[in-house]
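Subject: for your reference before the review

Hello V.,

The reviewers asked for a structural picture of the protein, and I figured it would be easier to keep everything in one thread rather than splitting it across files. Below is the amino acid sequence we used in the manuscript, unchanged from the supplementary table.
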Amino acid sequence: MKQILLVEDDLSLVTGLSFAIKKQGYGIEAARTSSDADRLWADGKYDLVIMDVSLPDGSGFELCRKIRCNSKVPILFLTAADEETDIIMGLDIGGDDYITKPFKLAVLLSRINALLRRSSNFSQPETELSSGGIRVQLLKNTVLKNGELVELTAGEYKLLCLFMENPDIVLSSEQILSSLWDCNENYVDSNTLTVYIRRLRKKIEDNPAKPERIITVRRMGYKWNTEGGI
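And here is what came back from the structure prediction:
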């Protein structure tokens, strides 16, 4: 059974949506605050997150950024804020869809079904990344180098996944920065990116002074190198 996390402070809406979503055959848990959502997210495994933008103790945007530090779970924003800038921000920080209140229940359920279907079709097979002696176990958020556990920060982990998902492709600093947020919702600048790459090399390279996995392409950016093997 697919599990859904609903983050919404309107009790009547929570009650109505929970009933309708359960009738679709999905499991659902509800959080009415950002702190409750943090707790449920940490304890459970969800296939979809539906969240309001305005919460009593925070913002759905902040929660989305936290989730995107270590998960690709589909996120649907459900909110009364229909300004174009809000919609663009929600999608730019990692949201997959955005529906405004008031809405038709049938439309919301159709969007939910579509996101879960898309997630099953494209995300499910990707449970592990492996290259050059480095293995990333995505379901466990763990990294192994030649079978040995490597301890990474959330930012380092996200950066490593970005590189390994784009093997032998040069990523500019701008491309990396546009997708990399730290887990305190701070935008990562170019200086911080340089620090992340240096620390990551120390942990995954055999010789960080002469990196063979994460290499610098002069005047262009960085790439995860698989050519020639390691």
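For the response letter, the relevant points are probably these. The chain has a mean pLDDT of 87. DSSP finds eight helices and 13 strands in the chain.

Happy to draft the paragraph if you're swamped.

O.
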